Amino acid sequence: MRHLMSPLDFTVDELEELFKLANDIEANHEKYSEKCHGKKLATCFYEPSTRTRLSFESAMINLGGSVIGFSDANSSSAAKGESVSDTIRVISCFADICAMRHPKEGAPMVAASKSSIPVINAGDGGHQHPTQTLTDLLTIRSLRGNIKDFTIGLCGDLKFGRTVHSLINALMRYPGIKFIFISPPELKVPDYITSALEEKGIEYKEVISLDEVMSELDFLYMTRVQRERFFNEEDYVRLKDFYILNKDKMAIAKDDMLVLHPLPRVNEISVDVDDDPRAAYFKQVQYGVYVRMALILTLLELV
Ligand code: NCD
Fold this sequence. Notes:
Elements: H1 12-27, E1 40-45, H2 51-62, E2 66-70, H3 84-94, E3 97-102, H4 107-114, E4 119-124, H5 130-144, E5 150-155, H6 162-171, E6 177-182, H7 191-200, E7 204-207, H8 210-213, E8 219-222, H9 233-239, H10 247-251, E9 258-260, H11 281-299
Parallel strand pairs: 1-2, 1-3, 3-4, 5-6, 5-8, 6-7, 8-9
Helix pairs in contact: 1-5, 1-11, 2-11, 3-4, 5-6, 5-11
């Protein structure tokens, strides 16, 4: 039995298989509409979510399966003091596969170690968000044709943003990727990530100004300042509007640069960018459903 805790749980070749499956799902919906007939997905969300939870639910429904779960820790027995280990043992009796989001780093790993069904980490604190990374990689691969030889700028909250941490981890395994980290000094990417890049001899730079590097980018990955992970509101207020991508900034970017964002967006991308053909963040949401369908089929060994 396999779980998904980090994007590195799959080899690059296995990811390639997963993305091919996701593209086939995109092209041939009908073929997959009954694949999970009689199977149940449990979504155990201890932290707010719109996209990830509904994307998982929609993926399972598209596969002909059904969905149970909770979307708020207060409406689960966690509010009575139940441990994640006990909850997953119980959920294992009800469902065939579980997607879990938790504010504590490592909670889905604890669950996986006690589970008799596959567990998918749907985001653990500021740590990892592997299915968002699968979504990002599928989007890059589908819109660019491959995952290699490009410069990606990651902009915003690189300290607390788990999608950023997972994506960098995953992209380190592909050839010719150059990273530009764009953040205020307080929200820099953690040292463990830059050390890993250095160890592997991967090119990166850290800058504060987005304008300064805009014209170098093939992808710009914008992120929200993660208010819920700040220790005080004052810092959040000071940093929240540090970057705002707008038409003027887009004017200095390459004609084929693509803008990604895991969403939800707050102010960091002005709505006037939405109509720009280079804005790919809503397409990205659609790829998220295909890749979660492919993941569910793979973990349930139904391919
Ligand atoms: C992200 C998350 O939850 O980490 N959202 C998502 O799942 N697409 C990004 C965020 O909340 O900023």
